[in-house]
Amino acid sequence: MWKYMLVGICLLAHTALFAQLRLPRLLTDHVVLQRDQPIPIPGQAGPRERITLEWQGVTYQTRAGKDGRWQITLPSAKAGGPYTLKVSTRRQSLIIQDILVGDVWICSGQSNMEWVLADTEGSDTVMARVQDSGIRHFKVPRSSSNTPQDTLAGGEWVVATSQTVANFTAVGYYFARQLRQHVGVPIGLINTSWGGSRIEPWMDAKTLALGDDISKVLQQQDVARRAEQEQWLIRKFGAVPTEDEGLLQNWQSSTADAASWPTMDLPNLWESQGLDRVDGVVWFRRTVQLSPQQAGQAAYLGLGMVDDSDQTWVNGEFVGETTMRYNAIRRYAIPAGVLKPGLNTIAVRVDDTGGGGGIYGNADSLYLQVGGERISLQGSWRYRLGKAYLNTAQQAANQQPTKLYNFMIHPLEWFPVKGIIWYQGESNANTETDASAYADLFGQLITSWRQHRGQPELPFLWVQLANFRAARDQPEASLWAALRESQGKALVLPQTGQAVIIDIGNADDIHPRNKRDVGYRLALPARRLVYGETNLVTSGPVLKEQRREGNRIRLRFASVGSGLEARRDRYGYLRGFTIAGADQQFHWAQAYIEGDEIVVWSASVPEPVAVRYAWADNPADANLYNREGLPASPFRTDTW
User: Which superfamily does CATH assign the domain made up of 245-388 to?
Assistant: First the structure.
């Protein structure tokens, strides 16, 4: 299937006299090649040029076609390295150094997969100790296209060190670290993820049954979307500012007049505050009254998280900036002498390139700390649009079908891998229709990605949605629970596994900072399905069946490991169960463990019909685990 296939081309030599010898972007220094599979080496040269390849002491030759395309397929190799690969024509030579042979995993999805190690819990300690040349990372740039591309937009292989690992996918790194400990072979991570993306952009047009003219339709939609946004900006602001008015008029100055600016409650993404069609630069200002004693003390400014970049001033003095780190918490030191008695002005220039924008996060991360006193900056801020970016196809791509597949997945399909890990779903949990439809879409994505690679049982592992939002006092419908159910339905496919993380999320943050346990739980099914640890318990309890016994329902489970247990309760009570009769009204239930089964009942439901467990956006009190410490997957026995 690899013959004469041209893939991501990287310009590695320059000459105006003859066609350049080129190799894919994935084939650069520090690459990890997949062990135990034939290794295709495709490229391009001049028409009919003879290609010579040297690898592990063996020389291979072929001749380019009329179009300059060529390919040499190397025999499968065992894990090892480092090796060198040399490719030559009569005029040119390319040398790839420090090659390892091991296992390659694709890491895909939205922001929780994209989330970098530096922004996770305990990252400073972890990064300081990293020195493992056997873990390597390739970040595919955010890129989109209306048609399938053979060429990656960029990227390079990076070896894990304490200086480089900060920008690795955190989930991928912790996953790889587990495999290194238990399997020992080199691990390559191809990180092709995009924050906020729905699942449809990661799927090809044929799988979505979009028709042959989909590229033309997408192009027309891009033009229409841009025109619509332009008209909206003109109606709301009177014009489309193409240069930053704030910088031109010194809005960072403490003397700038912002009294007429509208207000916005922070922290919040500005899309939820009336700027739903704004990508660009928005300025925020806030004043704080300080006493002479307060003004003379050391101070810090906390801005929570800013999507994507910020530049920040206090009383006209620049105090800090962070560039393209939408998931990094900002905390800037304010030098002595900047604060003054009376009114102090904070000015923040926020630059958002697409998707969500603004100052967001936990309310307690927005503050001015003066000495030992923390002054909350939550609430009303003045704001003003400085510059607008008219939507391009790139900016809206993570919401549109096929666009990410075309440029971030299709160019990878020639490159052999061991498996795929996936963390996505939040962006498809917005409506009941979306959450339900995800089951079919997710199964189709897995099947189609496997078909494109000619591997019908390529291992595919994913992360179920974490707990999020405030816990509810009463049982109620949940879109996130429905999405989790849709994710779990894909387990009927062979060589699949799921990491349940309803116990390590954050009610106030869609991005759990504990990525260590996510990587650990993803690695468990990999170790069993892929690496043969057959006796390993890889998930928490999974419902098998229910049966009614009078006014109670008895539940049986698989994956009980060495036994069921109730965690986080000193008396061993199970929580998180609800029960309903034929009226479909759910009530909180009592439950107890009896061997490998659980008995559920409620005095309010004398004739029970159905049980639900952890059926909420944030099932905060759900505490059913197995003794191996893995949480039970949320479930329902009804189809209401």
Answer: Galactose-binding domain-like (2.60.120.260)
